Amino acid sequence: MGKLTRVISILLAGSFVLLAGCSDQPIKETKASEQQPKIKVEKKVEKKKEEEKPVFVTIIDPTTKATIKTFNPKELGFSTDLEKYKAEISKVARELARGTETTPGYDKRMTLDKLDENGQVIKGTPQTILDEDELIEKVIQSSVKGGNVEVPLYVTASGYKVEDAAHLGEVLVASYTTHFNSGVVGRTKNIALSAQAINNVILGVGDSFSFNTTVGPSDAAHGFQKAPEVVEGKLVDGIGGGICQTSSTLFNAIDKLGVSYIEKHHHSLQVGYVPTGRDATVSYGGKDFRFKNTTGAPVILKAIVRKGSLTVEVRTAKAYQDIIKKQM
Predict the structure, then answer these.
(1) I need a surface site. Which of 51, 75, 177, 187 has the fewest CB within 10 A?
(2) 60-74: string of b/e by CB count within 10 Å (b at 16+)?
(3) How far apart are CA 305 and CA 323, in angstroms?
């Protein structure tokens, strides 16, 4: 037992020595994060895709450079339905050319030059045409990247030389005469006014004639009076009745030449001043009588009103009579 006691004592003494050699500071617990080297984690920052800038097409007036219309092609279906987009652009082109109920269009018929009583030229206005197909094509081409598109306008002046104006009455190449009752005051007045409007009108080579444009509104404000006229198969009184005799007389005269017709209509009833099928009815804002001078030479119209008769003559200069005869 003595030996055992000494062994235990020795062991206990060694333990105290070991404890005496330890620091009296509290043992600091080591964190896992401190035990391992730090690893820097970089977060990937995704770059935001730049938003596509909207594309705009602007239609511009070629003369004033003013903006007529601006639109986003994508919103009208350019990227998704090209046919639909083309239909939308066609509608825009049509309205710009022909106008709407509230806005006039770019298309303007030619107002022809004419001679005054002293033989001086009264200038008209040239024909203006907006090329709808060209505008549509230009807009579609610009719809990819956007940009300005000028309205394509084509202006055509009368096809004759000013120095020829004084000679156009030299040779009679065609004429036609109709008759009316001069006792009907309103009708007589209306025939006289419409005849005066077409008298001395010059048609150059390739010029287009419009009766309604040349005569203008056949209303009371312009001196026209009430007279019998054909409306929807019935003979009724209306302001301007009788002007169709002027247009029909002109048709029968000009028809003897090599002209081409743009627009011509018959009455819904037979009229007595020209043979069946030889009439040309008109109505301002509606039916018109239009033709193009394809004779190859400039001509001038003469409208002569006598008591109870109207004669329309087509004349030209001596220098051009052979050219016209070849077309007859």
Answers:
(1) 51
(2) beeeeeeeeeebebe
(3) 29
E strand or H helix that includes residue 178: strand 171-179
List Cβ neighbours of 198 (8 Å cut-off, separation of 6 or more).
Answer: 211, 214, 215, 246, 250, 301, 303, 312
Give the pairing of strands 309-316 and 114-115.
Answer: unpaired
Check residue 295 and report its DSSP letter: S
Report pTM. Answer: 0.77
Question: Which residues neighbour 310 within 8 Å (Cβ) at sequence distance 6 or greater?
Answer: 177, 178, 179, 180, 191, 195, 245, 246, 249, 303, 304
pLDDT per residue as tens digits for the range 195-242 = 999 999 999 999 999 999 999 999 999 999 998 787 766 667 789 999
- Amino acid, single-letter form, for residue 88: E
Q: What is the pLDDT of residues 235-288, one digit of tens each?
A: 677 899 999 999 999 999 999 998 999 999 998 888 889 999 999 999 998 999
Cα–Cα distance measured from residue 10 to residue 7, given in angstroms and rounded to the nearest whole number? 5
